[in-house]
């Protein structure tokens, strides 16, 4: 019998699917967990479980039954208090249970970054009630950005332009949070020139950085990313300083997506994912080791001698415009007729409006050409009933 390490993935979306594939390539037994059946990573894992991942008892049951060597969070909304206990009992949580807990909640990571570590961030307030929210927004000023404490991909997020929009922003946040406890963050709106993800990997070789990934977001969700993003030497140094500071503090082994805003020569810390990042899907075609391969190598304790950007590249996620129980994706053939282009189809069992269901990935000699190719490929894709 082949003896190997066992990994439980908590969250089984498109990012987890690539993590599972990389783990399988190194012979790791992979168990996928998510809130619904046929989630992308479940399609390639050895086994899977469907549970509410915010239910600590359910997570414990799976961990006690499987006794994994590695517990690998793939989304932020997990019963992280249970992960702390499991870690105390000797289970390994990636990168650490504390990192999973702090980043699940915007308050935890923001206070750590701004107040404990002194990193530059947008101004912010927290509010539990509508009255506190109104006061916080007035103090921050307009426009401001309103987000539930626990959410991702822009869910529940809005830009509140003036006092007249306060009620609407509050309502959006209350409906969009993963846990309906009402607390929100109100952030100063940063008029940035561009924003980036600095993928940072902590491995047995120490800390390494990938080339910066530029991206554009709409409604808080990414619609395009490219690598490398053009930055001045000073901006890169400051971005690396911020990324090193926050990832050293979070600790453990693995890849992190450090999100930063660039405004003139100033670099702001926005947030960090202690796991592969959606904008980093572009690394599937640009690097010698993708962000998923890097994560798996790092957490298994394998070396990462060098991260090489092999070519400029770009990614464009394909988001459904409809809600369908049964659907197919057409136009993949035409998308693949664009040179140097790949498409990854996630095969999520149902679509929702705005749900990411595939991604187009292109390379070229320049970022501009790669962005153009990925856009052309994306434009061929359709969701059909
Ligand atoms: N303070 C801000 N000023 C200006 N733009 C902002 C601010 N906060 C967020 N944004 C915009 O909204 C996007 C999403 O914000 P954020 O990363 O906090 O949300 P998220 O739901 O955690 O997204 P994800 O899970 O995809 O990382 C940012 O990438 C940025 O484009
Ligand atoms: N920005 C975070 C992010 O991109 N997370 C990715 O989206 C999935 C959830 O998708 P769903 O909402 O379509 O199920 C997550 O499982 C993860 O792969
Ligand atoms: Mg983000």
Automatic annotation (TrEMBL):
<feature type="binding site">
    <location>
        <position position="147"/>
    </location>
    <ligand>
        <name>ATP</name>
    </ligand>
</feature>
<dbReference type="InterPro" id="IPR011761">
    <property type="entry name" value="ATP-grasp"/>
</dbReference>
<feature type="binding site">
    <location>
        <position position="271"/>
    </location>
    <ligand>
        <name>Mg(2+)</name>
    </ligand>
</feature>
<dbReference type="GO" id="GO:0000287">
    <property type="term" value="F:magnesium ion binding"/>
</dbReference>
<feature type="domain" description="ATP-grasp">
    <location>
        <begin position="111"/>
        <end position="300"/>
    </location>
</feature>
<dbReference type="InterPro" id="IPR003135">
    <property type="entry name" value="ATP-grasp_carboxylate-amine"/>
</dbReference>
<dbReference type="InterPro" id="IPR013815">
    <property type="entry name" value="ATP_grasp_subdomain_1"/>
</dbReference>
<feature type="binding site">
    <location>
        <begin position="14"/>
        <end position="15"/>
    </location>
    <ligand>
        <name>N(1)-(5-phospho-beta-D-ribosyl)glycinamide</name>
    </ligand>
</feature>
<feature type="binding site">
    <location>
        <position position="195"/>
    </location>
    <ligand>
        <name>ATP</name>
    </ligand>
</feature>
<dbReference type="GO" id="GO:0043815">
    <property type="term" value="F:phosphoribosylglycinamide formyltransferase 2 activity"/>
</dbReference>
<keyword id="KW-0658">Purine biosynthesis</keyword>
<feature type="binding site">
    <location>
        <position position="106"/>
    </location>
    <ligand>
        <name>ATP</name>
    </ligand>
</feature>
<dbReference type="Pfam" id="PF22660">
    <property type="entry name" value="RS_preATP-grasp-like"/>
</dbReference>
<comment type="function">
    <text>Involved in the de novo purine biosynthesis. Catalyzes the transfer of formate to 5-phospho-ribosyl-glycinamide (GAR), producing 5-phospho-ribosyl-N-formylglycinamide (FGAR). Formate is provided by PurU via hydrolysis of 10-formyl-tetrahydrofolate.</text>
</comment>
<comment type="pathway">
    <text>Purine metabolism; IMP biosynthesis via de novo pathway; N(2)-formyl-N(1)-(5-phospho-D-ribosyl)glycinamide from N(1)-(5-phospho-D-ribosyl)glycinamide (formate route): step 1/1.</text>
</comment>
<feature type="binding site">
    <location>
        <position position="259"/>
    </location>
    <ligand>
        <name>Mg(2+)</name>
    </ligand>
</feature>
<feature type="binding site">
    <location>
        <begin position="355"/>
        <end position="356"/>
    </location>
    <ligand>
        <name>N(1)-(5-phospho-beta-D-ribosyl)glycinamide</name>
    </ligand>
</feature>
<dbReference type="Pfam" id="PF21244">
    <property type="entry name" value="PurT_C"/>
</dbReference>
<dbReference type="GO" id="GO:0004644">
    <property type="term" value="F:phosphoribosylglycinamide formyltransferase activity"/>
</dbReference>
<keyword id="KW-0808">Transferase</keyword>
<comment type="subunit">
    <text>Homodimer.</text>
</comment>
<dbReference type="Pfam" id="PF02222">
    <property type="entry name" value="ATP-grasp"/>
</dbReference>
<dbReference type="InterPro" id="IPR048740">
    <property type="entry name" value="PurT_C"/>
</dbReference>
<feature type="binding site">
    <location>
        <begin position="187"/>
        <end position="190"/>
    </location>
    <ligand>
        <name>ATP</name>
    </ligand>
</feature>
<dbReference type="InterPro" id="IPR005862">
    <property type="entry name" value="PurT"/>
</dbReference>
<keyword id="KW-0067">ATP-binding</keyword>
<keyword id="KW-0479">Metal-binding</keyword>
<comment type="similarity">
    <text>Belongs to the PurK/PurT family.</text>
</comment>
<protein>
    <recommendedName>
        <fullName>Formate-dependent phosphoribosylglycinamide formyltransferase</fullName>
        <ecNumber>6.3.1.21</ecNumber>
    </recommendedName>
</protein>
<keyword id="KW-0460">Magnesium</keyword>
<feature type="binding site">
    <location>
        <position position="348"/>
    </location>
    <ligand>
        <name>N(1)-(5-phospho-beta-D-ribosyl)glycinamide</name>
    </ligand>
</feature>
<keyword id="KW-0436">Ligase</keyword>
<dbReference type="InterPro" id="IPR054350">
    <property type="entry name" value="PurT/PurK_preATP-grasp"/>
</dbReference>
<keyword id="KW-0547">Nucleotide-binding</keyword>
<dbReference type="GO" id="GO:0005524">
    <property type="term" value="F:ATP binding"/>
</dbReference>
<dbReference type="InterPro" id="IPR016185">
    <property type="entry name" value="PreATP-grasp_dom_sf"/>
</dbReference>
<dbReference type="GO" id="GO:0005829">
    <property type="term" value="C:cytosol"/>
</dbReference>
<feature type="binding site">
    <location>
        <begin position="152"/>
        <end position="157"/>
    </location>
    <ligand>
        <name>ATP</name>
    </ligand>
</feature>
<dbReference type="GO" id="GO:0006189">
    <property type="term" value="P:'de novo' IMP biosynthetic process"/>
</dbReference>
<feature type="binding site">
    <location>
        <position position="74"/>
    </location>
    <ligand>
        <name>N(1)-(5-phospho-beta-D-ribosyl)glycinamide</name>
    </ligand>
</feature>
<feature type="binding site">
    <location>
        <position position="278"/>
    </location>
    <ligand>
        <name>N(1)-(5-phospho-beta-D-ribosyl)glycinamide</name>
    </ligand>
</feature>
């Amino acid at each position: 019998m082949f003896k190997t390490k066992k990994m439980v993935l908590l969250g089984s979306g498109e990012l987890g699917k690539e993590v599972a594939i990389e783990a399988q390539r190194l012979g790791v037994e992979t168990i996928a967990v998510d809130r619904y059946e046929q989630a992308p990573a479940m399609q390639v894992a050895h086994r899977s479980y469907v549970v509410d991942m915010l239910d600590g008892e359910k997570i414990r049951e799976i961990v006690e039954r499987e006794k994994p060597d590695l517990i690998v969070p793939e989304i932020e909304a997990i019963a992280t208090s249970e992960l702390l206990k499991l870690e105390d009992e000797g289970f390994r949580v990636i990168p650490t249970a504390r990192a999973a807990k702090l980043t699940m909640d915007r308050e935890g990571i923001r206070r750590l970054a701004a107040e404990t570590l002194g990193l530059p961030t947008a101004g912010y307030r927290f509010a539990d009630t509508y009255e506190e929210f109104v006061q916080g927004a007035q103090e921050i000023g307009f426009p401001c950005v309103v987000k539930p404490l626990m959410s991702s991909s822009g869910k529940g997020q809005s830009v509140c332009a003036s006092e007249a929009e306060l009620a609407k922003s509050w309502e959006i946040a209350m409906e969009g949070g993963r846990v309906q406890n009402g607390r929100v963050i109100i952030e100063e709106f940063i008029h940035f020139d561009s924003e980036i993800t600095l993928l940072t990997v902590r491995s047995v070789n120490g800390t390494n950085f990938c080339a910066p990934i530029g991206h554009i977001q709409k409604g808080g969700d990414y619609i395009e990313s490219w690598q490398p993003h053009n930055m001045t030497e000073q901006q890169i140094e400051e971005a690396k300083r911020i990324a090193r500071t926050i990832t050293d503090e979070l600790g453990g082994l693995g890849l992190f997506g450090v999100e930063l805003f660039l405004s003139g020569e100033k670099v702001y810390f926005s947030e960090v994912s202690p796991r592969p990042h959606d904008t980093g899907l572009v690394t599937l075609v640009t690097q010698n080791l993708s962000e998923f391969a890097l994560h798996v190598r790092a957490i298994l304790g394998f070396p990462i001698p060098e991260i090489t950007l092999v070519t400029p590249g770009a990614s464009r996620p394909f988001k459904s415009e409809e809600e369908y129980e049964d659907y197919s994706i057409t136009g993949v053939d035409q998308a693949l007729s664009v040179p140097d282009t790949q498409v990854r189809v996630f095969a999520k069992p149902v679509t929702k409006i705005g749900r990411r269901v595939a991604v187009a990935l292109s390379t070229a000699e320049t970022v501009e050409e790669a962005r153009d190719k990925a856009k052309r490929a994306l434009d061929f894709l359709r969701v059909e009933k």
